[in-house]
Design goal:
The chain is mainly α. About 70% of the residues lie in helices and about 0% in strands. The longest helix is centred in the last third of the chain and has 24 residues.
């Protein structure tokens, strides 16, 4: 069974001497939001948002104009996969939640070009072509056991869902979007603790400076 916030907090206390200050702060903040998510048992929307904050706290850093959020996330996933000798992240997306992963990949409502075409009244069909390419890439990556690409596509979809909730693009507890919120919660509540556990076990991981350091 994967560790929860309480177990991770105790582990951080045991290993804090091995971590640089920015690493301790990053992990401590992420665990605090994971604990808040775990306490939210009934409200899926809130649980998803808290889990996303925990995830964001784990990898967020200062980045310049030349570095996009997508590239930052991709680099983060590559670093984690490089130290994930037991392939724990792989098992989440290829075994435990393979069904929800495929549903997210096939869901146009968490594909940003769909919404962009809708906003811009674009009837050219370009978003459909992009969606089909994305599905083909995902399928090929699944067949080829390419964990990094599958994870990147999954988080790309979850990021759209995050935007819908955080920017008020969805109604709280709406009858719409329930499946993707539920699948997003299930994926994040399994992935985030593993991510934090890997970070705890590998204090030399270079994740860059945190955006908001502690100021006394």
């Amino acid at each position: 069974m994967d560790a929860g916030a309480t177990t991770l907090k105790a582990k951080l206390k045991r290993l804090e001497h091995a971590h640089a200050e920015h690493s301790r702060i990053r992990i401590h903040r992420a665990i605090s939001w994971l604990a808040r998510a775990e306490a939210e048992e009934k409200d899926l929307d809130a649980r998803f948002v808290f889990l996303w904050i925990a995830f964001n706290a784990a990898y967020a850093q200062e980045f310049g104009f030349e570095t996009t959020e997508r590239r930052l996330l991709g680099d983060f996933l590559l670093k984690l996969l490089a130290v994930d000798g037991e392939r724990r992240l792989h098992r989440i997306v290829f075994e435990k939640y393979s069904g929800p992963v495929r549903l997210l990949i096939d869901n146009r409502y968490v594909f940003e070009p769909f919404w962009r075409a809708l906003r811009e009244h674009d009837s050219s069909g370009q978003w459909e072509e992009a969606f089909s390419r994305s599905q083909r890439t995902a399928l090929a990556s699944i067949m080829g056991n390419q964990t990094q690409i599958v994870l990147a596509i999954v988080f790309d979809r979850l990021y759209v869902l995050r935007n819908q909730l955080v920017h008020g693009g969805a109604t709280w507890k709406s009858k719409l979007n329930r499946s993707q919120v539920r699948d997003g919660v299930n994926l994040l509540q399994s992935l985030v603790p593993i991510i934090l556990d890997l970070m705890l076990d590998h204090p030399t991981l270079d994740l860059g400076a945190i955006s908001y350091p502690v100021v006394a």
